[in-house]
Write a structure and sequence with these properties.
By secondary structure, the protein is mostly helical. It contains five helices and no strands. The termini are far apart.
Length: 107
């Protein structure tokens, strides 16, 4: 009980400092409450926006254009392309490799 009476006397004795401390504590508490309200409203707004937005998409091939491109080519041009591929060497021979290989077999 003595502590409470002493605290009350201290508050009433220095009124200017007590009023200043009260205003400071009030401003800090108000700022904290305002920040919490803003954070809560921003979270709810973002949740409602995300739930209202929906994105859908489809990926497909244009088979008509593919078939048209195939039909435009003649069988002769396709045969020429195939023959050109067959004439190309798959592995290019390297002369230095062939010489070293011959030396190994000759010894």
């Amino acid at each position: 009980m003595y502590i409470i009476k002493n605290a009350f006397k201290n508050i009433t004795r220095i009124k200017g400092r007590s009023i200043l401390m009260f205003i400071l504590i009030l401003v800090i508490a108000t700022s904290a409450c305002t920040a919490l309200v803003i954070k809560d409203s921003a979270d709810s707004a973002s949740e409602s926006m995300l739930s209202s937005m929906s994105i859908t998409g489809t990926i497909g091939t244009n088979r008509e254009a593919m078939m048209q491109g195939t039909m435009d080519r003649t069988d002769e041009s396709a045969r020429e392309d195939m023959m050109a591929l067959l004439r190309k060497p798959i592995i290019k021979p390297r002369p230095e490799f062939c010489q070293s290989l011959l030396l190994v077999f000759l010894h």
